[in-house]
């Protein structure tokens, strides 16, 4: 099959035989990801084949053969109906098929699930081969195409070695053809979230194509690829602190985690709170969150490639956002950002919420911590470990100081006690992809009363727990009493009336870009997100401003969270901006 005859050189359609599709669970599990990746997918059924409803996802076309027709005209009509060139842009896979020229190093097998997880990597390799062939055509003619094909075929064969990516680049595969293969490593649920948003295209776009990598297998055997995109926080472990140099190389957190493991409240828990807000203590059981062995091996592999493979983002940078105490220190520097000259920046300041790290819910330690915190309730309490574990998103709203004592066993220790800023139930989710900044507006936690009687009317215990990964509590619960029900109903209603349309202040795009630029430099990240709220002007402040104009305070923007590599869910134009950011970050590490 000569791909150069096609008006578009890349594979855009896949057709599977019915016998193959229904004989391989591993293949069926990929169908939705193939569709989300931009491929047209069809099942070619023989006259006697049927399947149960729902056996394949919506979007897979069924090409049913009859006794009187053959597959060629049926397939041709399907391809033409979707604007696909046949055979140039369509690959047909059936048992025993798998021409190495089409999908290098891959053979379709109905009886084995093992090859199928690598189907999408084989697609990337095939498109890389086609890009190399086309990229060499103009300058070198037929001999150039043949040489490029041979070089890339050697790269993607079973005996591929560590310098495969280099030879691909030198033959024009990555640079001459401007096609970069981005291998990604992350858990399946995160892969599905990103693919659903159109971020993991399997058909080359803007010079980028994505493919999954298997960290349980040698990365050398999965070459060529030019970039590894990772969510390393999916694979965290905990161990004793390493020396500073080794810790930086491994991407370890600098703040110890008390107890036998994350959230442990055993005998090794820290016994005091240090002056800098970090948990302190002299126990031998102090642990730190760090990236697991597969992630460290991935980083070591990249370091051995001689600058031919990039890592997005470097572990030293991503390590800064897995520990909320460290992240708080980075965000404290936001107060240095000058907004006065920006559009929408007059009379606006930005800061992080006040926070303190605790290692115990004992009354004496809480009293000392709150004195250091220096602000009144309510508080939001979060585990120090920001991601990567089931309980890293277990949080609580404590409506008065004494309520903190009821969080033992509910929010893991050590924990960060953070000032809760009323913000009219509106949060700005800001996404950063390279130098592009965009945002969405979402509902958030309603305003909470500052007086204990009013707070008790909402939540008698003073504690509201939630999982931030699933959803913020956009409504406060009501208790059994009629007064509590009325109070609970009033708060979200008031918040809804105030936000977002009627709010008196909305952060401008230029202001958000200034915040993003500061965090980008402070963290060293190219793919991240952060959450911003506008502190509500309380009623007593409004009255004072009305009678004493000179007493008016600046509008406060508060950055309440930062995370690495968000889903970019709901952000307009995210796929194209994401591809541009990935390509730009890759080229910053691997110029040429």
UniProtKB/TrEMBL annotation:
Region (Disordered) residue spans: 136-172, 238-281
Matches recorded under InterPro entries: Inositol_tetrakis-P_1-kinase, InsP(3)kin_ATP-grasp, ITPK1_N
Cofactor(s) needed for function: Mg(2+)
Keyword vocabulary terms for this entry: ATP-binding, Kinase, Magnesium, Metal-binding, Nucleotide-binding, Transferase
All copies of domain Inositol 1,3,4-trisphosphate 5/6-kinase ATP-grasp, residue ranges: 351-570
MF annotations from Gene Ontology: ATP binding; inositol-1,3,4-trisphosphate 5-kinase activity; inositol-1,3,4-trisphosphate 6-kinase activity; inositol-3,4,5,6-tetrakisphosphate 1-kinase activity; magnesium ion binding
Signal peptide: none
Biological process terms in GO annotation: inositol trisphosphate metabolic process
Biased composition (Low complexity): 157-172, 245-259
UniProt domain Inositol-tetrakisphosphate 1-kinase N-terminal: residue ranges: 181-235
Quaternary structure and partners: Monomer.
PANTHER family, alphabetized: INOSITOL-TETRAKISPHOSPHATE 1-KINASE
Family: Belongs to the ITPK1 family.
Annotated protein name in UniProt: Uncharacterized protein
Organism, scientific name: Chlamydomonas reinhardtii (Chlamydomonas smithii)
